[in-house]
Model the fold of this input.
Amino acid sequence: MSAEAANPGAPLRKRGRARIDLRRLGRVALLGPVSRDRLPDAIGHVAEAHRAHHPDADLAILSRAYVLAESSHRGQMRKSGEPYITHPLAVTLILAELGAETTTLTASLLHDTVEDTEVTLDQVREEFGDEVCYLVDGVTKLEKVDYGAAAEPETFRKMLVATGNDVRVMSIKLADRLHNMRTLGVMRPEKQARIAKVTRDVLIPLAERLGVQALKTELEDLVFAILHPEECERTHALVSAWEGAQDPLTEIADSVRTTLREAGINAEVLIRPRHFVSVHRVRIKRGEMRGTDFGRLLVLVGEDADCYAVLGELHTCFTPVISEFKDFIAAPKFNLYQSLHTAVVGSEGAVAEVLIRTHRMHKVAEAGVVALGNPYTQDGSAAAQQLEPADGERADPTRPGWLSRLLDWQESATDSDTFWATLRADLAQDREITVFRTDGGTLGLPAGASCVDAAYAQYGEEAHASIGARVNGRLATLSTTLNDGDTVQLLLAQDASSGPSPEWLDHARTPTARIAITRWLDAHPDGAQGPQKSRPDTPRPQAQPADEAAGRRSRAADRVAGVVVDMPGAPVRLAGCCTPVPPDTIIGFTVRGGAVTVHREECPAVARMRGTGRAAVGARWDDPGDLSGTTDYKVTLVAESFGRPRLLADLTEAIATADAAIVSATVEPPSEQRVRHTYTLQLPDAAGLPGLMRAMRDVPGVYDVSRAQQTAATG
Done:
């Protein structure tokens, strides 16, 4: 039932009562003052509005829906004293004026029958089909007798889940709330405020996200009047004071019409007054209102290309305000909105904001998803594109990314209070960005989202093992805020027991991330055991055993058995800048004293020496097929990681476990929570190098291990 509907004298509906004979009710109604071949007079205005958008619509089903709605609500009254049938009629008229198709209007006429009368869903299905039944069920409230205080949040959860399958459910709900807000004055002030707050926090953001601006703006003004009466009165007075004054937009509009007519562009130029909340926002932003701040120019054209032609003429013939230009045609908003925004300076210095769009864009800008009609029809019309995925299930072209994310996280929010609070917080994010994955996919995220949010959006609970990211190819921490168009690659630890840090909650903006992190932390009260904390059952290496192991090994720094150079008898040593080991491709250069220093082929020093004309000396491993010799080799490795406690201990343990000795180590000061470690290690077996590097990469917090590529002196 609507927020202010009441029927004090009628008995409450009881479960299990006998079914109503819908056909009998229909015959009784139709045999009244209206003949069978005419619509009931009460819905004549609905039919007229509907036919304006859909000239060929079959109105017979609307007639049958009205008959059922009127007969089932007969005797019920609204608190305003009007017959209750006026409410579903008003809701249907709102949708008809927005261009909703016949199925939506049929369901809107019946939207309160199952909730407030003895009509059942089975009867609606038999009489009007599955689609109408689904829409009516989607907007039917859950009963407080069953859900208590959780009835309202659980009703919205049910409605949103239904909207995920058919966005027309929310279209009906928004129109329903608009008519209730229009007639809310008969309610007690405290109830008005409660309904207005829910409208502000939930319904208005949903109207914005679904692109139904016509409903959103009126809802905003109605909420503004209830929750901020003094500010509203001040804004009303401000608008009234300017209504009698000469409107500078009129002169600019005439100049724009003349300019476009002379350019041969067929366009309609209108002045669109701002609604009260918009005026209030401009006043807060600018302090003092200008005459052109009370409205904007709207230029409507036939084709997309005409929009840019208009833009070119305006920017050529008027002085443009470049900072005000936005192209929402090339990059539409996430709520289907398309338009060019600009501002130009008139002859008297007045600045006018201008919106440029096609008639089709304007219809979608006003009505959003309602303008798309039935997204599941197969008539191939542009307003109702049918997408058929490979699995044969119907796909909703109007189901945006934010709705998919909402449906995902609501499954995790089993508690009604958590769902209600999280829903309001999620809807408060009023802008969306798109980031690109390195595999070619995309992620839709709210503005302000971080790499934490991207990780959970892409990997779900596997994101517990996240250790960092690369954003646009550069290393970044999980706390990094993402921008529209960024490319992000998430880095995960190999440790399956990894878990998030409580600090991640400070950077998580999406409910999906926050719910998953909170759930993991609640299940692991002793702390994370992955990227943020080391495993407590892992023995920590001590300096003494590592030093003793190194002492047991040969430390002959110049031992290079297994290297053959094309200068027999010449002393040979391995370069310290690139520390080659089998099976690296190697090359030598002579240095002072006649010795040959052997480098890896890709060492930067090799290119530098060749560039100065130094002659290379051929070099090769004595037996490249056998990497399991007894010769000790030095190798320099660079480990890049995110800083955390005990990271150095874990790395040295991994090195010692691989039976390598640390000859030297340097740790650079942390920069943006990233740490760079450089180790020169002595290996008893060159074949163990790949395993050593894997072991170091597996240390939680380490995202890369590579061979050193330092430039060293060569002479």
Summary: The chain is about 40% helix and 15% strand. The chain has a mean pLDDT of 78. The longest strand covers residues 633-642.
